[in-house]
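[Automated response] Your request has been received and processed.

Submitted sequence:
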Amino acid sequence: MKLKFLFTGIIFCQFFSAQYNYPATPEHPVVDDYFGTKITDNYRWLEDIKNPEVQKWFKSQSDFSHSIIDKIPHREDLYKRMKEVQEMNGDSFDAIYQRENTYFYTKTKKGENLSKLYSRDLSTGKEILVFDPETVGKNTQITNFVLDSKAKKIAILFSKSGGEICHLRILDLETKKFLNDEVGPIWSEFAFEFTPDDKALMYTKMSTADPNSNMLLKEMKAMLHVIGTDTKTDKILASKEDYPELNALTEQFPMINFTDDYKNIVLRLGSVKSESPIFVAPYSELKNKKINWRQIVKPSDDITDVFISGEKLFLLTHKEAPNYKIILTNLLSPDFKNAKTVVPENNDKVIISIHNSKNYLYYSLGDGIVRDKYQVNINTLTGKKVGFPTGVNSSSSLNQRENDNIYCNNVNWLSPLTTYEYNPEKGNIVKSKYLNSETNYPDYNKLYTVKEVEVKSHDGVMVPFSIIYPKNMKMDGNSPAYITGYGGYGFSYEPRFSTRLSVLLEQGVVLGIAHVRGGGEKGEKWHSGGMKATKPNTWKDFIACSEYLVNQKYTSASKLIGNGGSAGGILIGRAITERPDLYAVAIPEVGMTNTLRSEITANGPNQIPEIGTLQNEEDTKYLMEMDAQSKVKKGVKYPAVIVTTGMNDSRVVPWMPGKFAAILQSSSASGKPILLYANYENGHFTSDLDVVFKEYADVYSFALWQVGHPKFQPTKN
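Generated structure:
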């Protein structure tokens, strides 16, 4: 009976594949000469995203994809199950701050899609809804918020439909009305802060709010806005044009903040490169027409983070310490060579991050799977481990200017997030009374096994690989498997509980997380081992982990689903162009699949430190090697592919995934479907859970159909 069913499924797939009359995609060849190597791009015309013909093409591709996906059974069940699992968590919390005896936080309540802003009186336990973003307009989301010192005003950053070009409004907490000020445009990740007298705001302003402008993420300015005045009169605190002495690059963004004692202003010229130029100036400089900035850190110092306490300058560095160390020097006359080592480099684990409370510095020590938390007294420099439960422990201060209270989120692959509160003076770790909610998850540890292994890559290097699979699963190669990875910017793919991936597990799917080079799991050497010239290690590590799943009989190539998102688009794009036989399905999510054209995009120059520039012949060789678009060849049997893009995405412009789908549709000889999933309610990501779950239900049902999962096989009409 089983064999008959599978045979029927194969016949249907062949029948169905004959129906793939993709929307027409004209080819208009453009030949580029990259230092003597000529590459033809047939789909350059799709880069003109404002062109009505291009917009029509994206819409027709979207409609076609939905005409296929809508025929897959149980797709709606996946969506409903994601919603159910999410509701098992109860309420979920985001940004959390404390002012005196009150907590302020954003929270997504059980059964709701978007987070709202709340406050809670710790004396009475009473919670109040402070602000609902949809009162501003449909699909409006709170991206971030900050409070003034007395909790009289809240500055709220708003976005629309997953877009990251935001604007800022100031809410008066006494009248519950917005002030007239409207500040922006501001990128979603940029910080903003009230001055100590609460009369002004510091922020980073984008040069344009046009998502299609090539200037979108260039020529930004650090600004000071006096509340109640016209934003046209805002003071420029730092910019390339007005402060040429900073030697800022066009693509660097000036991020600005006060030290906790408000004695100094700190300026960082940020980019994807963690080693940024950092400057300071006395707070008194704010009254001057122009700030007299003093540089304290150069990129060549290999310093990735700083914390200033009075005249003490604490630094996180990988200079002669690939696993990082924390050093201390004097702010007035920094001397890194003779700095005091506060926390030495660890041979086995990596110092991942630092943050502070009023009297303590906290750092994370991790190996990519477990992240422990440590504290150091700022005054005595004595330190110890904080006894949070085993897992990934990420902490933040509740109000570092007033107290030593911190909260810590603890999570594992199979353990949903739990929030703890801690004060080092009191010494007790408590499960937070107000920052957790009642949950009713099943005991995932009884249902699934987690195995942490190391896999030998192409050059003999051992790559950490996390595998999660149903207990008592037969290792016969018949189970579908989903493998994902990232490998960029030194970002570590640490354990986290995922609602959507837990639903995949419930379908009997093996999950694999490849901790490939380019990430930070093993320190700066691991990062530099997967960038520019060494970038091929990223996808070759991924291929090695994929082969491991097949060789160890977790799955087979006909049932293997490969995934990579954003910069992970390089990983999955090159994995399937180098080893198309190894995967049944590929899911490039908002992926960087056309690195040769990245530099012309708004976010492209920002990527140069990580992937290189076409202005350099050597870098160009590396960019050609990592460019999946130009590696697609006619007549190759590629896997089934569902390429996703958010039409409001400003990080990876929609035409990049669009071009990748177009060339695969015209080139693949496998007969398997190649779909472009264009989401008009999304950007690079969104906080709207309804949009998130609908997209993943569609994408996962497509993948499960293609690997032959019985529940997801369409019936022939």
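Summary generated for your ticket: Confidence is low (pLDDT under 50) at residues 1-18. The two ends are 22 Å apart (CA to CA).
If you did not submit this request, please reply to this message.
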